[in-house]
Amino acid sequence: MIHRLSDVHSDKIGYGTKIWQYCVILKGATIGQNCNINANVFIENDVHIGDNVTVKSGVQIWDGVVLEDNVFIGPNVTFTNDFAPRSRQHPKEFLQTTIKKGASIGANSTIVGGITIGKYAMIGAGSVVTKDIMSHELWYGNPAIKKGYVCSCGNKCDKTFVCTKCKEKIK
């Protein structure tokens, strides 16, 4: 389903994906199956989005960003891809940013280019992420710092790395 008020140039969009109004998706972008791309999202050319990904409203996903399967991107998350941007001057290569399977990024967070956020990691709303984050880590703040661990179900783990809700041990 592609809303009639969106401007979609890519033909690499998986079955069951929904693209809502006022989205712009450039020709080179790849989007997997069963994704939900909310209103007012811009997706550049060299972007790869896996299956079952949710991208909330107001997000721009620039060249060099990979969102693996089951990733959640909250409203107004900002990605960057160039450490020294200048108008009309493009780097030879954009920074590569990877958000691994099952990771969640809270609303209004900024993700500095060139980093990897690990599987099932969680970034709290309003955070500024400037370095790599390992799997299952919980980070928030400006700059974001590690505050603990989360289970693949999204709940915080205790000091023994056991989920307080589903009782899964993550380490």
Keywords:
five-stranded parallel sheet; 171 residues; mainly beta; eight-stranded mixed sheet
Description:
- This protein has 171 residues and is mainly beta.
- It has one domain: UDP N-Acetylglucosamine Acyltransferase, domain 1, CATH 2.160.10.
- The protein is built from no helices and 20 strands.
- It has strands spanning 7-8, 18-19, 24-25, 30-31, 36-37, 42-43, 48-49, 54-55, 60-61, 65-67, 72-73, 78-79, 97-99, 104-105, 110-111, 116-117, 122-123, 128-129, 137-141, 144-149.
- The strands form 4 sheets. The chain has an 8-stranded mixed beta sheet with strand order 2-5-8-11-14-17-19-20, with no helix packed on it.
- Strand 19 and strand 20 (144-149) form a beta hairpin.
- The chain starts with 6 loop residues before the first strand and ends in a 22-residue tail after the last strand.
- The mean pLDDT is 95.
